[in-house]
Amino acid sequence: MHENPVQAVPDDHHAQLVADTFRLLADPTRVKILWALLQGESSVGTLAELVDTTPTAASQHLSKLRLAGLVESRREGTFIHYSATDRHVHRLLAEALSRAEHVTGVAAPDAPHSYRA
């Protein structure tokens, strides 16, 4: 963070992009899928199992994340592998998840965070 922000208030376009990103991340399953993908590439079936949802639901969430540019896919034979590489989103999620640890009392104020970007 900058001590003195470059702009005191974001312009309309940037504010809208941020709001759109937050809206997309407002779903717990998408947060879990995205965090898992930030740890490494995965298939729909593996992701569904990791986040405790159906492959169909995972696929629908991945479609939204891919359309938003937060997830990439590559085909290998009949399998599609997904990955997330946006470092900005990684840092954003790490901070939000670390805050959740503090709010729930899982982490002491000075304890290292379980979630790191």
Secondary-structure blueprint:
Layout: H1 12-24, H2 28-39, E1 42-43, H3 44-51, H4 55-67, E2 72-76, E3 79-83, H5 87-104
CATH topology of the largest domain: Arc Repressor Mutant, subunit A
The value of Rg in angstroms is 16 Å
CATH-assigned homologous superfamily of the largest domain: Winged helix-like DNA-binding domain superfamily/Winged helix DNA-binding domain
Shape: globular
Low-confidence stretches: none
- Integer count of domains: 2
Mean pLDDT across the residues is 91
- Quote the beta fraction: 5-15%
Under the CATH scheme, the architecture of the largest domain is: Orthogonal Bundle
Strand order of the largest sheet: 1-3-2
Derived structural class? mainly alpha
Biggest β-sheet strands, sense, barrel? 3 strands, antiparallel
Distance between the termini: 15 Å
Oligomer: single chain
Number of helices: 5
Total E-strand runs: 3
Summary, kept brief:
With 117 residues, the chain is mainly alpha-helical. Helix content is 55%, strand content 10%.
Structural summary, described in words:
The protein has 117 residues and is mainly alpha-helical. It folds into two domains: 12-84, Winged helix-like DNA-binding domain superfamily/Winged helix DNA-binding domain (Arc Repressor Mutant, subunit A); 86-117. It has five helices and three strands.
